C-alpha cells in the first residue's frame, strides 16, 4: 500500500509540475491555460469526495511475446504513446504488481440457472488468485441490481466472504446486464486505488435494463476501468449476446473469454487474475481537451534493440464527459454509509 501512496504522490507532483510549466508559458504568451482549476470557494465542509481535476490519462498495458507470455523488464523508453497518431510524452510509468480494485458483475437471471455452478467456480477461482492487497466487491443482478453487503464495507479482500455472498443467491427473473455494469463502474468511484477493473460473468443478454447498450459502451470508454468478460453460453438460451461482452472488453483494454467447461471457466478466471498482475501502467497528459464529446484513439507501441514482435494490448482510446472535460483522480474523504442504495447514474467522467 505504501507503493500506491508513493505512486499517487508522484502523479500529483507531475501534475503540479506540468501546471507550473504551463503557468510560466502563459506569462510569456498569454495563450496557455492552467491544467489545475481554481479551488472552490463554496465553503461546504460536508464529508463528500474531494475531486482533483487533471488532464491525466492512465493506460494499463499488457505486453506479450508471440507465444502469449508476458514480456517483463521493459523500461520507460521502450514505450511510445500516440493519440490520434500524434506522439505523446510519457508522464507516468509503473511496472510493479500494484493492488487493483475489482468488481465482479455476476448474472443471476433465470437464464443462468444451469450455469450457476460455473458462476460460483469463476468467482472462487478469481478471488483466490489475486493479490492479497486487492479490494473486491460483487454486483448481483437479474431484473434488479444489488451490490452485495460485505460487513458494511464497500470492498473486501476476503475470498471466503465473497464465496458466501455469491452462493446465497438463486437464479431467477429477467436480465439487467447494462444497468449492472453501470452500477459497477459507479461503485469503483469509492476506491482509493489507481488501478480498477470489472469482471463480467454472464451470457451477455439483456431484457430489463433502463440503460441501453450504447450508453454503457460510452460509460466504459469514458472510464479508466479495464473490463474482462466470461461469456457463459448454452444451446437453449435465445437472448445471449457474447458480442456485447467482447465489445466491452475490447474498448477498455481487457480480454473476453468463452469457456466451454467448468474447468475452462476456472482457467479463464485465473488467467484474468494473472493478466491484472502482469501489466505496465502508463500515463500521459493530452495536449488539448477540445470537444468533450469526442472519442480519441490511443495506440501504444513497444520497441527494443532486439526488435521482437510483441503484442501490445490496452484500451482503444478515451473520451471525456462534457461536464468535466478532464481526467479525475478522486480522493475519498469519507466513505458514504449509503454505498449500497438503489441505482444511481454514473457521471461518466474519466477517473
Report on the architecture of this protein.
With 351 residues, this protein is an alpha/beta fold. It has a domain at 100-277: Rossmann fold (3-Layer(aba) Sandwich). 28% of the residues lie in helices and 24% in strands. It is built from seven helices and 16 strands. Strands 8-7-6-9-10-11 form a six-stranded mixed beta sheet, sandwiched between helices. Strand 6, helix 2 (116-127) and strand 7 (135-141) form a beta-alpha-beta unit. Helix 2 (116-127) packs antiparallel against helix 3 (159-167), helix 2 (116-127) packs parallel to helix 7 and helix 5 runs parallel beside helix 6 (242-252).
What is the number of helices?
7
CATH topology of the domain at 100-277: Rossmann fold
CATH architecture of the domain at 100-277: 3-Layer(aba) Sandwich
Beta-strand portion reads 15-25%
**Low-confidence regions:** 1-53, 323-351
Classification by helices and strands: alpha/beta
List the helices and strands and how they pair.
Elements: H1 2-29, E1 50-54, E2 57-64, E3 79-83, E4 86-88, E5 90-94, E6 100-107, H2 116-127, E7 135-141, E8 145-147, H3 159-167, H4 177-187, E9 195-202, H5 213-222, E10 226-231, H6 242-252, E11 256-257, H7 262-277, E12 280-284, E13 295-302, E14 311-313, E15 317-319, E16 327-331
Parallel strand pairs: 6-7, 6-9, 9-10, 10-11
Antiparallel strand pairs: 1-16, 2-12, 2-14, 3-4, 3-13, 5-12, 7-8, 13-15
Helix pairs in contact: 2-3, 2-7, 4-5, 5-6
Amino acid at each position: 500500500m505504501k507503493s500506491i501512496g508513493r505512486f499517487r504522490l508522484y502523479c500529483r507532483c507531475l501534475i503540479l509540475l506540468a501546471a507550473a510549466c504551463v503557468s510560466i508559458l502563459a506569462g510569456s504568451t498569454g495563450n496557455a491555460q492552467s491544467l489545475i482549476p481554481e479551488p472552490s470557494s463554496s465553503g461546504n465542509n460536508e464529508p463528500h469526495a474531494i475531486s482533483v481535476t487533471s488532464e491525466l490519462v492512465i493506460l494499463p498495458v499488457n505486453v506479450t511475446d508471440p507465444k502469449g507470455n508476458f514480456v517483463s523488464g521493459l523500461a520507460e523508453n521502450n514505450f511510445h504513446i500516440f493519440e490520434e497518431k500524434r506522439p505523446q510524452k510519457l508522464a507516468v510509468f509503473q511496472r510493479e504488481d500494484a493492488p487493483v480494485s475489482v468488481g465482479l458483475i455476476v448474472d443471476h437471471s433465470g437464464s443462468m440457472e444451469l450455469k450457476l455452478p460455473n458462476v460460483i467456480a469463476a468467482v472462487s477461482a478469481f478471488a483466490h488468485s489475486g493479490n492479497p492487497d486487492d479490494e473486491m466487491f460483487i454486483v448481483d443482478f437479474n431484473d434488479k441490481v444489488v451490490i452485495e453487503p460485505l460487513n458494511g464495507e464497500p470492498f473486501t479482500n476476503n475470498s471466503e466472504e465473497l464465496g458466501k455472498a455469491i452462493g446465497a443467491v438463486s437464479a431467477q427473473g429477467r436480465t439487467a446486464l447494462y444497468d449492472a455494469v453501470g452500477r459497477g463502474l459507479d461503485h469503483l468511484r469509492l476506491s482509493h486505488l489507481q488501478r480498477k477493473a470489472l469482471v463480467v460473468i454472464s451470457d451477455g443478454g439483456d431484457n430489463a435494463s433502463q440503460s441501453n447498450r450504447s450508453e454503457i459502451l460510452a460509460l466504459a470508454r469514458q472510464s479508466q476501468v479495464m473490463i474482462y468478460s466470461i461469456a457463459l453460453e448454452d444451446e437453449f438460451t435465445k437472448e445471449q449476446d457474447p458480442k456485447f461482452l467482447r465489445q466491452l472488453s475490447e474498448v477498455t483494454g481487457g480480454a473476453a473469454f468463452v469457456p466451454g467447461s467448468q474447468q475452462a471457466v476456472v482457467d479463464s478466471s485465473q488467467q484474468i487474475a494473472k493478466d491484472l498482475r502482469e501489466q505496465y501502467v502508463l500515463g500521459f497528459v493530452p495536449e488539448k481537451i477540445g470537444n468533450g464529446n469526442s472519442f480519441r484513439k490511443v495506440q501504444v507501441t513497444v520497441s527494443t534493440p532486439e526488435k521482437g514482435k510483441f503484442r501490445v494490448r490496452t484500451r482503444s482510446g478515451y473520451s471525456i464527459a462534457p461536464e468535466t472535460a478532464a481526467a479525475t483522480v478522486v480522493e475519498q474523504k469519507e466513505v458514504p454509509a449509503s454505498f449500497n442504495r438503489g441505482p444511481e447514474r454514473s457521471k461518466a467522467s474519466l477517473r
